[in-house]
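Comment thread on ticket #2218

A.B. wrote:
> Attaching the input chain for the structure job we discussed in standup.
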Amino acid sequence: EQWPVSLKIRVDQLLSSAVPAALFWGSSLILIYNDAYRRRGGFDNFECLGQPADQCCGVEASEIADILKRVLSGQSAILENAPFPLASGGLAPGIPFTVSYGPISDERGRVAGISEVVVEKAGSYLSAASMRMNEEQLRAFVSATSDVVYHMNPDWTEMRRLDGSGVLAEALAPRQSWLETYVFPEDQTDVASKILDAVRTKKPFELEHRIRCANGSAAWIQSRAVPLFDNDGEIREWVGAASDVTKRHNAEDALRESETRFRQMADSVPALIWMTDEGGNVVFVNLHHSYLFGLHGREMVGERWTRLLLTEDVAPFLVALRHAIETQAHCCREVRVRDRSGATRWLRCEGVPRLDEQGTYLGYTFCAVDITEAHLAEEELEKRVEDRTVELMVVEQNLRQLQKMEAIGQLTGGLAHDFNNMLQGGLGGLEMARRRLLDRRIDDAQQFLDAARSALDRAAGLTRRLLAFARRQHLEPKPTDVDALISGIAELVRRTVGPAITLDLCLQHDSSGSGSILCDPNELESALLNLCINARDAMPDGGRLTVGTGETDLSNADVLGDLELKPGRYVRIFVTDEGHGMSADVAERVFEPFYTTKPIGEGTGLGLSQVYGFVRQSGGTVHLDTMVGRGTTMTLLLPRHDLPPAQTQPLSTPDQTEVDASGTTVLLVDDEMSVRAPVAVRLRELGLRVIEAEDGPAALRLLAEVQGSAIDLLITDVGLPKGMNGTQLAEAARSVIPDLPVLFITGYAGVSLPPGIAVMGKPFELETLATTVLRIIRGVPGRKHEDTRLTQASLQ
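C.D. wrote:
> Ran it. Output below, let me know if you need it in another format.
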């Protein structure tokens, strides 16, 4: 079923013929023969049927090898006096034969095989009986096949069948040669030329031409003729066979017509169309190649189409093409080329495999559409989107800047409002105290001094809350057991929220140390009290307040977008109330400083911002869950700490009378005279020797001028003028006096301080400073003061 039509027709004719005949097909020249050929060839069975010629032709193979090659190139050939071996049958082996070879074309006009016809040479070798038997066999062949077997006189002036009848019988008109009557006028000149050449050269010939049939129709025949010679070597007659090849010609005509229509259609399409052979080489390109690239089709045939591509696109296209050829699948690829003007064009190439009627792969047919405009439009769209994105980012940045400025305005407005109130209280109290002192009304002055002190304390508290929000407050983190801390302040919370509110503790851990975090416990207590007070205010009619703890894990996805938060194990502290809850817009702003929903005078709006700042500065975060009418849950997440909680020991206040401060020298450095002077006076009241300096360089000079004693304690501000801060000063002093105790007094904790350094945040009470200084002096082992002159050079 899968044989080509041309092979089927040839084998059909071969098997129905009584003349010994065979054919060789394909590149291996597979032998197919009829019964007469088998008997004449002496093949007892069919062992040679379907075998390559070189395996079954025996002696004949070496003699016909060159002939077969020539026939495969499209020529015909005759082998005279061929020693065709015969089987038993009364004829001696080695009787000479005339063997005619001719090319066989397939549907596409390519030589696909070779025909072989064997004719015995009678002459002196055959008896009359054998001649009669041979003629009878030939007549049987004539009656058994649709082909016409004929003989001609030496000059081809008359053609007759082997049975003696005319080729055209009664249709052959008098006084007309068979050529004029039989062959189409358009073909007569070519046929006559080939016949005359065969008569002159005495060689076999083959030709194809059109004929007029007896019924008036036209047909195509393929004729092969072999000359027979007399004893003088002259042509006695010609013997030939004519095969009807009308079907093949019609098929070829239809194919050519189809190819013409395809070419016309391909040339009219405004796209690149081309075809390849089995290996991917170009066999056809349409006219659009000439329009786009300025190339004639002949320049592309036999070449790779990739010669048109940009260098960087060649390899990917070849990979896709090879894969498509191996799998015989659809091939699609976008590539770039340069047109005849040198401009870059984008093409979308799609190819499908080309198969014949039997499904044999013949190559690919490709179509490439110019999509440059679409690419340019896409690039333009992407550029517009990118430009628009940039514009939106600028707008968003400006919006954030406006929001920031609004927040700063709100912050500064609230700060100015609260500080003005506090300053007014302080200034008014000090003014009235001064007036009372001038009037020597000392008893009345005390109340105004207390009022001024209260206002200044509130201002100090406001500053601390602002530093907490800004995450710049000075913290003293310690391993802290959260459950123990909450249990410790539970009674204070109950007293603070009042009897109308029930406090429930939902603590996960015991006091064994599990659930420890690293934070400033004092600030954590303050934050929890702040949250509990807010919960109380949200439940004016009473309710239930729950404070609980637990643990949770935060994954990478949970902390995505928060650069300060790290994945890991966290301790969860939550405060839940049953109050009125918050709306969405309030919840969005709840951590902003000075934002409050309480009436004027009942809240500063710094409580939650302080909590938020403390938790973030401690490495955690805050989650808010609220709904109007359903209450609020505020959750603090702080990193779990594996070290055991620190044992909090109450710091005893040293009895100032028990500490011998005599002989102790303190170097006090602060650029603010209003700060330095009261501190110096209070320290001298303790019996300390105080040396004052207003900046770092001045302090170094004083160290160099000390005669016969060393400095026992350095008290310095962190932010100092003239290019040397307090940290640098402490390092310089310790390079001269190792292990020199240092106490930093600072109003800003944004700098990194050396470890093991005592710190006091401004503002502070002078009594607290005095207690701290005495504790430092008491904790320092006795120092043997050497009489060492500290020179400026040694300090440097």
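A.B. wrote:
> Thanks. Noting for the ticket: The longest helix spans residues 372-438.
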